[in-house]
Amino acid sequence: MRIKSILTITLVLLGVGLSLAQPNPRQLKTDALKYFEKAKFPEALNLLLKYQRLKPTDDEVKPKIGICLYHTNNTAEARKYLLYVANTAKKVDPAIPYFIARSYHADLDYTNAIKYYKTFLRQTKPGTEMRAAVKDDIRRCARAIRLSQGEEVAVVENLGEKVNSIYDDFAPVLSPNYDSKIYFSSTRKNAGGLRNEAGLEEPLYGFYRSDMYSSVVVNGEWTATTPFNSLLNSPLHDVILDFNPTGSVMYFFKGNDIYSGDILIDSFNKTQQSLFPDQFVGPAVARKGDRDLHFFNDTILLFASYREGGYGGADLYVSTFTQGRWTQAKNLGPTINGPYDERTPFLARDGRTLYFSSNHTGSVGGLDVFKARYDDKTTSWSEPVNMGLPINSAGDDAFFRLSKDGLKAFFSSSRKEGMGARDLYVAYFKGYQSEQRQASIPIAFHFVPEFKRRQAEGSLVITTPAVPQASSGIDTNVPTFSESEITEYDFEALYFGTDDNVLTLNNVRELNRVARLMVQYPQLKLQLTSNYDGSNPAEFDLFFSIKRAEKAARYLIENGVDPKQLFVKGCGSQYPVVKAMTENGPNTLGMKYNRRIDLDFFEVEGLPINVRVKGPEVQARIQDSRGRYYYQSTRGLSYKVQVAAIRQNYSSDIIMSYPDGQVELMPEETIYRYSVGLYSTYEAAAALRKELESLGLTDAFIVPYVNGLRISRNDLPGYSKAYPDLVNFMVNTEGR
User: Do the domain assignments include residue 450?
Assistant: First the structure.
């Protein structure tokens, strides 16, 4: 009896529990609508879907489900509900075609987006709120269609799930000292407290305040993020802004909410971080609506502000550090600023190229990244240019920052394919962004009194860093210097071992010396020619060799050398200077000296310097004649036939079958140029080209070289007197 009673009670209790667990449809709908009205779309969507399963015929909730799906980035599913409502409802709320248009816009279907934006306009009366914004969206879609027909400037990738989260990840800042390290801010759960819109704690449906994080690249992949320590991350909003050039000082924001707080300065050193960091004393004040601070070399401050006196929305302002203080902020003017929002400024290393984000009608979505250039002569900005697709999207794209090497940029975006509100992305450019070279004169937008005074006196010559010009070979106006005025420079070739480590301690020491010389004399050119010992697979021999020289070139660029001063060449294992085998077996010196990057300097004429490069010293009995052949064949005028220009390895039978194959790279580009043959006359090169054309390489063409350096067509006339055979080349290749 006792067991039966317990069983009965248990069943009764289970029945009660089951009864209580059954959701009340009316209550579900009521709660869902409350969340919807408060724009709590994830919570509203969860309840609406539960309600729909219980009441599938209630069409009243379908438009709200569609809108919730749109706001949670499920745009394709959102359209199913919204199009159903648009096609079945007797009276369609204008919000329906608007959100249909927005969903198409987010999915980059600009044609259908325009169609439904226009439907919205037809269904609303003139003067209705949102009409002006929708007309802007139509213009953005039309611009996106035009931009999509052009060539994309970069390849864009999400930094991945180890860096990004379902929360808001934004404000990337690159480490000044490590190319593979990034800092950013995020609202993911850490030290930041959980708050509601009023800033009060709300453990259930609030949001986290932002904290600061870092991530590094290890073995080609971004690692899991690391939060800053508790001295920097707090229960308040903590947002990283910038570093000084050495990375020893960090600027960051801390406040109760993102619209108010303080701009702080602290030593970025684990042993020196203070509980009470210094407050920034300058023209930017967060509590007055100033934000997005960017410090350029601790000399120029750019920021966005909603302060009065602007052109509307957020404007960009500039201040300079002069005589121990920051000057009063000055608006960048109507070319940059307008009635919309201009945000997140970034100044390239040349001090003249400005990147920023704006949502004006020249954008394709919300905030788009734009680029403008400051003209020293006119002291004005160029018209901003949209960076185009895929850098910009239908979402907000902002916090754009170039890497030091000018080959990529990091930014945040709310585009649909992201993992959360905003994600961090990297853009890999198809060519080097030349504005990342060092400027010869630190620009201060002509606001620094000393700059203006010297300019007025005529003691300051303003020059944009020039592209080095090739020597004519016949310059009769080369200045002469006495022996006491000439500085001697002796360099060594760069050797790398079995681990392919180009940046050894000795090589870095040598590259640092080279960088200092080339920064001092920007007219100098340097060709880095990489050789190998034949241990690569034959089809990858050339490509592997140039990648080593490319690594050395990147190091020079990172240390201030203009990429246009550099030429990179890979010759594989074709021209060893040491025999790989001797009568006694394998020659260890062959491995040591054939794995080498040679340095060749050009445009030394007219400079008070002598430059010598020491190669390997090898006994005559173990010398390999092929190395001597290459040197002798490339002195003076020579010709090769280019057979391919691609972005990766070229393993064609052509490059394997013909002698003297090589690959070249201009560091400001990403195109590898493959060529074969090595001839002293145009006639001999033309015969090879004709043969290659008969094999189907109709695009093959002849390239002239002087002392092993490729010569552009514009420079040919200057060389033709010293090398008369160039006349044959110029006559026979006119227009090619």
Answer: no
Domain range for 409 is: 154-436
168 DSSP 8-state letter: B
142 and 210 inside one domain? no
Backbone angles phi, psi at 682, to 5 degrees: -65, -40
261 HSE (CA, 13 A, CB side)? 19
Taking the C-alpha atoms of residue 639 and residue 680, their distance in angstroms, rounded to an integer, is 6
Distance, in Å, from the CA atom of 445 to the CA atom of 299, rounded to the nearest integer, reads: 11
State pLDDT tens for residues 106-149. 888 888 988 999 989 888 888 777 888 888 888 888 877 877 77
**Tens digit of pLDDT for each residue in 243-300?**
988 888 899 999 877 667 899 998 765 444 455 688 898 999 988 889 999 999 888 9
Residue 709 has a CB neighbour count (10 Å cut-off) of: 19
Residue with tokens 């724009």: 39
Kind and range of the H or E run holding 702: strand 701-706
User: In this predicted model, what pLDDT tens digit does every residue of 603-633 receive, in sequence order?
Assistant: 887 778 889 998 887 777 788 888 888 888 8
Closest CA to 33 of 55, 73, 66, 64: 64
662 DSSP assignment: E
Q: Are residues 331 and 206 in the same domain?
A: yes
The number of distinct structural domains making up the chain is: 3
In a domain, 304, yes or no: yes
Distance CA(168)–CA(188), nearest Å, equals 7
pTM over cut 0.85: no
206 neighbors 226 (Cβ within 8 angstroms)? no
